């Protein structure tokens, strides 16, 4: 049987190129907000609203080559380590997203990046709607292709039936295709090899790149983590840790 790894490479490459080309404008808009916040010594908050979308929040947080002032909302209730089925139940539970948001110290005017490749579940939409009530500036990362396809009556959806791209201030399309997985085999109905995590991470890192460029253009010095596995890494990061430990919950 042919192993179609080369097709996966080709498909992933096509999607990533599409993100870089077609989402460029919204990525630039997001980066402008992010750079303004960092220059003003504010935090950028990020939440992955369910399952593997958590990886998006973790990709931005405490990352070698990544921005330092990232406050990740890492709620254990939707962490797969505490139960895969439990994660799915909680991301569909009305009121849960609001509770998670309220448990972190986000203030009016703060930026919150909401990462969810599917962009439809109850927690995702609830956090977006509650963020608007709090006066937060919201950036969504997800797939319009998937969200627009799924029936408004699907049980994963927020009762409003809204999609993430309809309720955030800036939406960055990660161009995840319908169904997530992209590799087909003969005599096998379900495709294999998902791409959502790659789509989310690539999109988020494009936002980081643009943000760093804008900070430099403003004459600032972007705060960037160095790998602690390199010589001098711990020393280079120590000042950042001391500066932000009291403001970023999971940095401690």
Question: Could you characterize the architecture of this molecule?
Answer:
- The protein has helices at residues 5-22, 24-39, 54-60, 84-91, 96-102, 122-133, 144-149, 164-167, 196-217, 233-244; strands at residues 44-48, 70-72, 111-115, 137-142, 170-173, 181-185, 188-194.
- The chain is α/β, with parallel strands linked by helices and 252 residues long.
- Strands 2-1-3-4-5 form a five-stranded parallel sheet, with helices on both faces.
Descriptive keywords:
252 residues, alpha/beta, Rossmann fold, five-stranded parallel sheet, two-stranded antiparallel ribbon, 7 strands, 44% helix
Largest sheet: 5 strands, parallel
Query: Biggest sheet: strands side by side, in what order?
Result: 2-1-3-4-5
Quaternary organization: single chain
- CATH-assigned fold name: Rossmann fold
Overall residue-averaged pLDDT value:
95
Shape assignment = globular
Q: Stretches where pLDDT falls below 50 for ≥5 residues? A: none
CATH homologous superfamily?
Glucose-6-phosphate isomerase like protein, domain 1
Number of domains: 1
Distance between the termini: 50 Å
In angstroms, what is the radius of gyration? Answer: 18 Å
CATH architecture: 3-Layer(aba) Sandwich
Structural class category: alpha/beta
Strands, count: 7
* Level-1 CATH class name: Alpha Beta
* Percent helix range: 40-55%
Number of helices: 10
- The proportion of residues in beta strands is 5-15%
What is the N-to-C succession of helices and strands? HHEHEHHEHEHHEEEHH
């Amino acid at each position: 049987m042919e192993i179609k790894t080369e097709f996966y490479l080709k498909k992933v490459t096509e999607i990533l190129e599409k993100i870089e080309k077609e989402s460029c404008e919204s990525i630039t808009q997001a980066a402008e907000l992010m750079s303004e916040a960092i220059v003003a010594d504010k935090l950028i908050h990020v939440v992955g609203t369910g399952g593997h979308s958590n990886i998006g929040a973790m990709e931005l947080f405490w990352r070698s080559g990544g921005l330092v002032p990232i406050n990740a909302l890492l709620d254990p209730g939707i962490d797969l380590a505490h139960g895969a089925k439990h994660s799915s139940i909680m991301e569909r539970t009305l009121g849960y997203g609001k509770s998670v948001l309220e448990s972190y110290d986000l203030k009016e005017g703060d930026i919150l990046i909401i990462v969810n490749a599917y962009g439809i579940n109850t927690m995702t939409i609830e956090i977006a709607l509650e963020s608007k009530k709090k006066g937060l500036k919201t950036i969504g990362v997800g797939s319009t292709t998937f969200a627009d396809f799924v029936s408004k009556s699907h049980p994963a959806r927020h009762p409003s039936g809204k999609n993430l791209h309809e309720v955030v201030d800036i939406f960055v399309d990660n161009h995840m295709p319908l169904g997530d997985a992209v590799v087909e085999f003969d005599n096998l109905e379900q495709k294999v090899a998902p791409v959502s995590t790659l789509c989310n991470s690539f999109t988020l890192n494009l936002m980081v790149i643009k943000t760093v460029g804008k900070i430099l253009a403003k004459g600032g010095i972007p705060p960037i983590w160095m790998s602690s596995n390199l010589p001098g890494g711990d020393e280079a990061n120590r000042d950042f840790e001391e500066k932000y430990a009291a403001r970023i919950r999971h940095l401690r």
